[in-house]
Amino acid sequence: MQYYHRYIDNSRPIYPSGKVVCVGRNYVEHAKELNNPIPSEPILFMKPSSALWPLELPIQLPNYANDCQHEIEIAILIGKKLVNAKVDESEAAIAGYGLALDLTLRDIQLRLKQQGYPWERAKAFDGSCPMSPFIMPERIKPLLPCDFSLYINGKIRQQGSMAQMLWPVAELLAHISQIFTLLPGDVVLTGTPAGVGPLQAGDRLLLNLADRYEFTSQVIG
Ligand code: ZN
Predict the structure, then answer these.
(1) What is the 3-state secondary structure (H, E, C) of the chain?
(2) HSE-CB for 186 with a 13 A CA cutoff
(3) Taking a C-beta distance cutoff of 8 angstroms, is the pair 43, 179 a contact?
(4) Distance 104 CA to ligand 1 centre (A)
């Protein structure tokens, strides 16, 4: 399925999707909960565009894993090409803010990590990146640094603030662009706060950004 990034009110043209560059351990409390050291530079990995999935459609749990976990993350839509970019240039290239789930097959990821193998089987599978529509930067900027949260079946599971990021968004984009060219339609996932855990068939999800924007989803088995 060719995925197109959208805006919440269809107020701007849609973008064809590109790659998703993800940042690991950008929140200290999440690194601690998985017994991971605090990194000295951002940990980067990627999901292909085939991982993208509209957040509002049901999430299908892969049948070859036993522990599919939620990681709510701020998603940044790239609107301009960034190569070896400075921080201010990176800031100006942000075309939207949204929320995404970095779905992670934790049982498979742990096995791959122990073997020293790449993580893609655990994090880059089809549908592993449920993505909200985006909100224009001019609407989010007055709310920054904003809080975001994930509720499952009415109970809060993850809560974070962009103020808690080890590397702020524009610095992350500048850093990533030294290694991977960021193109319009690419997305950067900025890491997850503490509270990750397993999803179960039947779960109902509510994702909240800045107490202003809400997105819902559900899990099917
Ligand atoms: Zn993540």
Answers:
(1) CCCEECECCCCCCCEECCCEEEEECCEHHHHHHCCCCCCCCCEEEEECHHHEEECCCCEECCCCCCCEEECEEEEEEECCCECCCCHHHHHHCEEEEEEEECCEEHHHHHHHHHHCCCCHHHHCCCCCEEECCEECHHHHHHHCCCEEEEEECCEEEEEEEHHHECCCHHHHHHHHCCCCCECCCCEEECCCCCCCEECCCCCEEEEEECCCEEEEEEEEC
(2) 21
(3) no
(4) 8
pLDDT tens digits, the chain, 221 residues: what are they? 689 999 998 877 788 899 999 999 899 888 788 888 888 899 999 999 999 999 999 999 999 999 999 999 999 999 999 999 999 999 999 999 999 999 999 999 999 999 999 999 999 999 999 999 999 999 999 999 999 999 999 999 999 999 999 999 999 999 999 999 999 999 999 999 999 999 999 999 999 999 999 999 999 97
How far does the centroid of ligand 1 lie from the alpha carbon of residue 37, in Å?
15
136 CA distance to ligand 1 middle (Å):
23
| Strand-strand pairing, 52-54 and 129-131 | parallel
pTM of the model: 0.95
